[in-house]
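ok trying again, last paste got cut off:
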Amino acid sequence: MPDADLQLPSFETEKQHSISGLSSGAFMTVQLHLAHSACFVGAGVVAGGPYRCAESFRGAAPDAEDAFSLGALYICMTPLTPRTAPSALRLAGLARDTASANLIDPLENLADDRLYIFTGSEDKVVDSSVVKTTLEFYRLLGVPEKNIRFINDVPAGHSIITDNVTDSPLATNQPPYINYGRFWQSHDILEHIYGDLNPPASMLSGRFIRFEQRGFIGDETAYASMAPYGYAYIPGPVARGEVKARGVHIAMHGCKQGYSYVNYVLGKPDIANQPPYGARYINSTGYNEIAETNRLIILYPQATGDDDNEAQNPDGCWDWWGYSAKNQKNPDYYSKNAVQIAAIHRMLKRLGG
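nice, full thing came through this time. structure:
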């Protein structure tokens, strides 16, 4: 698939960058969007909750370390009751406090951003009520209604949707979380963020690049739970220097969707039964085809499933509840200083100025 291993190249762009993601990638999309809102013109959130959602109730467990993971499971994914669902009002206040502490960009940057927020009506993994809270959260932070597209009436399971008949049935709630729904959700996301786009390419002429992520992580590799390599797609006209790129779109995969994901059974890698999911989020979700004809570079950062280091992230999820922090009693997973957010932002700066 990719060219030979390269350092991530740099391109001159118009700096109209954006981001989208599914599931843990959607939660991470919200965190990155707020942490570096000065960099982005829009975001796509597919089955994801609001910023710092895992801290909705910090007294959820006797041990602080457990409260965040329990909050992630039973408040931000499947609330036990409507009253235990996350509060948009409280989390918007938490976002304002975080911005006041200069840990994220000023929230005023969100005022002209465009948002695509989606929840499938058959999603059994992240409850639709949580995704609706994401909508309310952004409204409270000043994103105008005309800039938001909220969809909750498609009978989709937990997935990103494609027009590829070989993908899972639409209502499926299991890996690889890529479901057939007769439309390309990636195209819908980018068209909402950028406005009218050219039709997608029927054939790609650009370059897939594999690059080392370690250089963007720094000394926190044991905590980062990021794969050795990340990927990028450079549209043909941009790669050949014929046009300036409009910007970089960061496409965040969900749990068990990273290129290097390996299933673990009883703490050991189950290589014999490993499903070949990894490249599908990069190759078959439609981002590259719409990018090819619209001067958009696609960046695919990669999380990895770690069960034998400090991170303890066997499902290869992005960190939206604190597993990557050294201080588990007060984890920093949501600010500019968080290891994954900082690494991906460095990738964006290198790739798209």
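cool. The CA atoms of residues 306 and 312 lie 6 Å apart. The chain has a mean pLDDT of 91.
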